[in-house]
Design a protein that fits this description.
single chain, 178 residues, alpha/beta, Rossmann fold, 9 strands, 22% helix, globular, binds guanosine-5'-monophosphate
Length: 178
Amino acid sequence: MRMVDGERLDVLISRDAIAARVREMGECITNDYRDKELILVGILKGSFIFMADLCRSVDLLAEIDFMAVSSYGMSTKSSGVVRIVKDLDNSVEGKHVLVVEDIVDTGLTLNYIYGHVKSRGATSVKICTLLDKVSRREITVPVHYKGFEIPDAFVVGYGLDVKERYRNVKDVCRVVED
Ligand code: 5GP
């Protein structure tokens, strides 16, 4: 792939390791939600590739929906005050919701989304994230399914971006400035 001048990507989690872990997570979810009405809610845009792979590892009749949120302000640091850019298409009332996120950092964004989905009358709301930067957490959010814990580094690939670049990179990578 052609890179931005002076930038290099170092693989942190390989595509093979991701594929194996996503399969395991899908099997767990399949067992836990058997005989339940499940809606997988992906948080755009970062979760789109994870959702595509995860939902095909879930062997259940599940609905798929998406939400998109954006943080208020220009700060790169999460404020926890988020604006819903795209809300759920369908009612979650009486259903079991699994929120599918790319990465949990401070937890502020997910804390907001969790509250929002709960307030819509879901029977249960659980969280599934591919990546978790536990050391950065500022607020406790219940993460029920977790792919990998990662160190405090900015990562891209497998859906994650920096300035909308590198979402289509197959591995989860660190961006290194040469
Ligand atoms: P939180 O509210 O948990 O601090 O922020 C979560 C959001 O911040 C994620 O959904 C993601 O959009 C963004 N984010 C946090 N860490 C990273 C990272 O290492 N790489 C990328 N590309 N986005 C991140």
